[in-house]
Design a protein that fits this description.
mainly alpha; binds heme C; 46% helix; 96 residues; 0% strand
């Protein structure tokens, strides 16, 4: 049992599943043509499995640890289940 163990099988969450969550909750700002911003903040685009993979640590930090994203009191209404999904996914990733 480790600190980040959230009680489910870690390998249950694929990066593609996380991408679906990013599309629903993050892409309004973090995409090439964001709907809610004139450009992706910090140049951070989360539109492919590769983007999600490359930014795994930052996603985990902002969604699970600091909960700074989604901003403006969770403007895109990310659910607790989705945050838990990100936590499980991150815990199950090979640590680079
Ligand atoms: C309403 C627009 C908006 C949405 C939706 C949004 N972000 Fe952001 N994001 C921002 C802005 C603006 C910044 C830059 C300012 C800041 O850091 O607060 C940012 C910065 C970031 C950063 C870099 C900040 C750092 O501390 O390194 C990450 C990582 C990030 N967002 C991830 C996400 C994820 C993951 C989601 C979806 C769960 C998300 N964001 C949803 C607007 C948004």
């Amino acid at each position: 049992m480790v600190a980040w163990d959230v009680g489910a099988s870690p390998q249950a969450v694929a990066t593609a599943d996380v991408l679906a969550t990013m599309s629903a909750r993050c892409e309004a700002c973090h995409s090439e043509r964001p709907r809610l911003m004139w450009k992706a903040p910090g140049g951070l685009v989360l539109s492919s499995v590769d983007d999600v993979d490359r930014n795994a640590a930052a996603i985990y930090r902002t969604v699970v640890q600091s909960r700074a994203m989604p901003p403006i009191w969770n403007v895109t209404r990310m659910t607790e289940a989705e945050r838990a999904q990100i936590a499980r996914w991150f815990a199950g990733r090979p640590q680079l």
